Amino acid sequence: EALLARMRQAVAFKKGDAGMKEAVDNARAGMNSFVAYYRRNTKIAGAVSFSTLYTAISTVSGHFQNYGSEYPVPEKRRKRLNQQFNEIEKQIQR
């Protein structure tokens, strides 16, 4: 859930907001660590919540990889990511 909070924070920024680069860099480091650790764990990697989270990580990471850590996530993509984040939270609580 801490990773999810960092990802939510990173995608919430608007152009020119202070602290965006630091938040994005922090989220990217957390996403990389999470994927490196849990991808090999078959019990977790097979879970629906992992699959949805992995998709969200891929989307967020891909955006900042292509556009840099100072370019905000477009509204259409942010909306879809927030829907995925909500699904992940529901799946984690089960």
Structure explained in plain terms:
With 94 residues, the chain is mostly helical. It contains 5 helices and no strands. Helix 1 runs antiparallel to helix 2, helix 1 (2-12) runs antiparallel to helix 5 and helix 2 (20-38) crosses helix 4 (48-67). The longest helix has 20 residues, at 48-67. The two termini are 13 Å apart.
Q: Give me the strand/helix succession.
A: HHHHH
What structural class is derived from the secondary structure elements? mainly alpha
Average of per-residue pLDDT values: 89
Helix content: over 70%
Low confidence ranges: none
Strand content: under 5%
| Largest sheet: number of strands, sense, barrel closure | none
Number of helices: 5
Count of strand segments: 0
Radius of gyration, in Å, reads 13 Å
End-to-end C-alpha gap:
13 Å
Q: Given the C-alpha coordinates, what overall shape results?
A: globular
Brief synopsis:
With 94 residues, the chain is mainly α. The chain is 78% helix and 0% strand.
